Amino acid sequence: MKKRKIIIRLIKYLLFIGVLxxxxxxxxxxxxxxxxxxxxxxxxxxxxxxxxxxxxxxxxCPEYDEKMQFAEQxxxxxxxxxSCGKTPKYLKKALGLPYDKVIxxxxxxxxxxQLILNTEIILKNKAYNKDIEFIxxxxxxxxxxxxxxxxxxxxxxxxxxxxxxxSNVIPIITLE
Length: 176
Prior knowledge:
The protein is α+β, with helices and mostly antiparallel strands. It contains 3 helices and 11 strands; from the N terminus they run H-E-E-E-H-E-E-E-E-E-E-H-E-E. It is elongated, with a radius of gyration of 18 Å.
């Protein structure tokens, strides 16, 4: 009986913390709660940025096009809030910067000749950009998750323009 009370109390505390995080996320725009699987679930701090740096996490809003429609129709977003109009905000690393050479192959994405971990192609369908090679333009970024190979990222929806990037994020508390 005592174990049951402890478990119930623990569940109440965890629920309280979860609700508190959601309230803080709503009330304080400088916090983001990530609950996608692209990066560790947790609480992230939003901050302004001047320049976009390789390997840094950013929040951005992709354009709603046929590739985003595909993601929506296939449930890639789940019940995520569409806070960018028709799409949710995305949390990814900027791994391709302006003037970088990007090659997308079945075994993964190469940036300037270097294979990025966990970027092998999983979705071979109309969203997949098979065996393409291009140079990023002045305001283009290739946003990826090198944490989860199942992430829906620039491998599938393409490049992101600088004006679509909202903030840089830094993990505060994550569950790995």
